[in-house]
Amino acid sequence: MGKPLYITTPLYYVNAKPHLGHAYTTLLGDTLKSFALQQGRECFFLAGTDEHGEKIAQSAEKAGKSPMEFVDEVAALFEGTWKLLGLNPDISYRTTRPSHIKLVQEALQRLKDQGDIRFSSYTGKYCLGCERFRTDQEWDEKGLCPDHQRPPEIREESNYFFNMEKYRQKTLEYYRGHSDAIVPHHYMKEALAMLEEPLEDLCISRPTSRITWGIPLPFDRNYVTYVWFDALLSYLGGLGYTGRPLAEEKSFRHDLWGQSQHLIGKDILKTHAVYWPTMLLALGLEPARQLQVNGFWLTAGLKMSKSLGNVVDPVKVYEIFGAEAFRYFLMRDMSYGVDASFTWESFVSRANSELANGIGNLASRTLTLVHKNLEARVPSAAHRNDEDRALLAKVDGLPSKFAEEFANARYHVALASFAETVATCDRYINDTKPWSLAKDPAQKDRLAAVLGTMLDALSLLSVVMQSVLPEGSRKLRSALGFTNDPEVLAWELTGLRPKEGTPLGEVPRLYPRLELPKDPDATV
Ligand code: MSP
Fold first, then answer.
1. Cα 282 to chain center, whole Å?
2. CA–CA separation, 506 and 487 (whole Å)
3. Type and span of the H or E element at 50
4. How many CB atoms lie within 10 A of CB 2?
5. Which structural domains are found in the chain, ordered by start?
6. Choice among 33, 43, 145, 266 that is catalytic
7. What are the pLDDT digits (tens) for 390-422?
8. Which of 55, 112, 130, 475 is catalytic?
9. What share of the chain is helix, strand, coil (3-state, %, to 5)?
10. Is 270 labeled as catalytic in the residue annotation?
11. Fewest beta carbons within 10 Å, which of 56, 57, 100, 390?
12. Residue-wise pLDDT tens digits, 8-62
């Protein structure tokens, strides 16, 4: 058994239905969980929704609903979407749960009692899109929030403040001692730069005169908790933390916390890399083990976002093209950590070149030849030559390469090496020409050697692809005659060769070619 793993998505705001950017992190979490299980690790995967705050109260009002009614509906929409897309978090955490409210209040009271929270007044530039005060440097040249393209609101209020500065050095030390605590590395550099300057106190309350949709402060009922302070604590709540002193936390999965990986977008780096570790250290806990930071999905060069009105609906993409192409495209086309563009053309082209013409075609041409010429059984390996062994040596290098790239959050590179291995197999078939060998009875042994080599290669590929292409993997396994597979294909199975004489299943049609929808944007 490897180390356990705790994976989290951000807690999505429930002010609108999920878009492709949200689906991406949930898909990544789902994929990472499957991959971890393949590596023999226990894994707990949390997704959830961030349901308090001004932005959500405003959306509820616009919809003519009470906040609770509204968040119930939208949270269900998020959960339903993940289910539909075949994404399976172990928990869909909601910040409106009574246990969460209690946890936040317990934690706040402790921080207040230990002198980390003070009352004061503050004037600052607030972005409602981000639900946070931005410093003077954090506005673009037009004076707008770069993420939401909205002007600052100047806010002056008496509020409660959390002393982040007290924990700044410790946070820096943590990062310096854990160079992979934030990946890709350029985000670590950004975080260190933010932490090299003294930190202003964090405003953690909102007066109920302005907003009531939030968790009441336990020590002053005229205030509710700032949404970020509330939502970040969900990551602990999901592991059974209740906010009490650690010695009293009986069901908190401390072991999983030590192996926590937060998947986040680059716009929420500051809250996760600066606010969150200071909160954790104040509570006597270690910062999260790792932040993995993705770039934005763009449409027409702009961040896909509800407020810009350019979102792609993941459900539509799924309905048109199916779950497997959806998973493959998102994992393959985003170079992890930088922005990526969604276009229908690039989607169709990627799926056709690497699924339909790639693994799909490789499997069907190999299996069809075995069915036609070798009585649909795994042939003997007795007559293999150096060419066959050379191919398998290349293919055998894939699992460790793929696993290494996954471990380094280079998912797109892992998939590129999968696609390259498929292409190498294709070249091998083109060179060995089994269809010609099949016409010459004198070449029967050579034909068996070539096709047997290919069945070995496909068997390895079927294991490697499981976390990203679970359905294709399953179909391919049964076509290869594996009838007793466990649900999770342990990584060691990459070394298992199909046994001579095993009858094969039907030839699958793994990935049919996709057509570009006539007017795709009209369907989205
Ligand atoms: N509620 C906060 C997170 C609290 S976590 C304790 C929040 N919610 S959000 O719904 O606005 O964003 C959730 C995630 O979606 C963020 O990681 C954000 O980066 C991601 N995305 C939103 N739009 C995106 C794209 N266009 N592309 C990729 N991801 C983007 O922030």
1. 28
2. 20
3. strand 43-50
4. 12
5. 5-294 (3.40.50.620), 343-493 (1.10.730.10)
6. 145
7. 999 999 999 999 999 999 999 999 999 999 999
8. 130
9. 50, 15, 35
10. no
11. 390
12. 999 999 999 999 999 999 999 999 999 999 999 999 999 999 999 988 999 999 9
